[in-house]
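Researcher: Go.
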Amino acid sequence: MDFSAWPLWQNILVFALAGVVILLVGTRLAGLADRFADRTGLGEAMAGTIFLGLVTSLPGLATSVTAALDGRAALAISNALGGIAVQTAFLAVADLSYRKANLEHAVASVQNMMQIVLLVMLLGLVLMAISGPTVDILPVHPVTPLIFVAALVGTFVIYRSGELPMWHPRDTRETVPDVPEEAAKRESLGKLVLKMLVAAVLVLIAGIAVARSTGVIADRTGISESVAGALFSGVVTSLPELVTTLAAIRRGALTLAVGDIVGGNFFDMLFLVAVDIAYLGGSIYHVDAVGQREVFFTGLIILMNMILLAGMFYRQRCGPGNVGLESLLMLAAYGTGIAVLVNMG
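Model: Structure:
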């Protein structure tokens, strides 16, 4: 469907309607994932990272791949990076909504911390690809298959760290354990999977609509694709992570809530593998439109995630206003980074 033939107001309407679909479907996903974790015995951390993180990332994947196929390299990359940044900021918003204690203290998890370490390592590879020499192999950057392999190996290591942990965070009165619900164990696994598949298809279609409409909006308004991807499509396609995280907190599934965010960030990293393959003009990292803004934004994401990781290690029970200091720092870093990105054009 050619969205460029439509007037600007229709593209804005499509963008808004697709965002509503993503938001509504996202509200259902937290309950499905929580029951899936209990039914399979997988645990909230891995269910949030793998299944909920994957499904809630589908709108962003559809947006980035569609943008790459349309030749919009900067939009494809900035949508993925923008999703990671805003999702990390969403974790701070989730901390604001959990009033009993600092969220990162209550859900100390080796797997979630390992996931953040893996994400920062993969982001380092992205920085090297963008700032390094121009190299293409069939016709992708050598970093692309390296990111994929590192992600697979890292996922196995994270899983093993949960199965055979070498150390455990100390339990406190505020620690919320992952205890499966007995009712969920009797629920039909087939029905749960079917519902999650339907939700996945809906958010995937909505993600394609977001990509096409965002590209036209950027063209018609003169906004750079990097800013449009980081602020518009990146935020809208990340709405499932926000609503599912808040819904999981209301259900008391705190580990699932945090796992959804860090898992969503991990899958957003894999978008960059997909978009480099989908972009037919060579390596997407060396297109003229990709450069300083993407390097800056990648550095911002690394900073935010290292603040989050430090907060998980320190495990402050409660900070200013009963909110963790790391959450306030992440929000400050995100707000400052967005302001700088907009001024960069």
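Model: Residues 8-40 form the longest helix (33 residues).
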